[in-house]
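Expect chain and fold; see below:
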Amino acid sequence: MKKITQIGPAAMVAAAFIGPGTVTTATLSGAGYGYTLLWAVLFSTLATILLQEMAARLGVAGQMGLGEAIRSKISSPWARIVAFGLVLAAILGGNMAYEAGNLTGAVLGFNQWQWHIGLMRFSPLLLLIGLIAFLLLYSGRYRTIERFLVLLVGTMSIVFFASALLLSPDWGEILKGLFLPALPEKSLLVVVGLIGTTIVPYNLFLHASTASKRWQDPAQLRAARWDTVISVSVGGLITMAIVITAAAALHSTGQTVENAGDLARQLQPLLGDWAPTFLALGFLAAGLSSSITAPLAAAFATAGVLGWPADLRSGRFRLIWMIVLCVGIVFALIGFKPILVILFAQVANGMLLPVIVGFLLWVMNDRKLLGKHINTTTLNILGLVVLLVALGLGMKGVITALF
């Protein structure tokens, strides 16, 4: 029971990466390629555990966020401008695009509650989600935000695990997809998306900052590691459950999938009239959780690199997340097609990942900052493998997308 109560900061990470991007990309993976790409989810989950453990260790042992650590490592003014510009463009700018996708994806299962007025889309539910995110973040109560996100992760677990199990999937094919990597024709961008939607750069900033607030003693590193392994593993299993559900329900039909809402409609004849509403609840939880964490992570990253206090009640901290949230709401109301907004953000995320991982590995080898808690040689090698794989997939993804 004590270990369960230790779950917190990493659950926020899981809540962040199980968003509409995950739901959409996992649905496309299962519908288009069956169980074949489950290995990419497994790799992503293990890589995320590795990197997020480093971020949590930085927060607990170094008592600072990743943005602050990068700032402390770079002394050259020109190098700071380049590094900070890259972080701000990738995290602050990227999270605005993510936020539009988060809010749009959250209402995928509730199209009947939306009305179009010219170019604008009026969605009371979308505005309500934005209001809930605003009120939670404005409260400045870290533990309240944390507990609410843990609740949303629990909701997603119930919805997507139940959906996968009720479809009686082929477990032999599932094991084959997990442990025998394959890359079917035209599947590369989906693989990049699966990796990009799980190993999220802004989560490294979010986790380091929130872990430093939850634990202040390096003796508590064991609790932080437990939190990371359990929470990220649950997040990975949720992604797998979505792939499995889509594979079992859609792969053999050959129908074109536009968004995860198609999955909900396809489940109705298989699981009954309640299925679309049940799955819509999962989409809502995914969108709401990410609509809270994306602005929060952007605020932590921006405050860290600019040397501002990472205080949830600070005026400048609040200004950052307000900008991200409000821009996301406006873009979502304009009515971008969810599949385009979300997939673009995920692929871009995969391109930016190697740079942020490189920053993290650099910081995690600073003995002055972390003392005996620096990376071991094994962790550095594994981190380098993740960096190279992400870099290779990212380059291939760009080439495939352009040519």
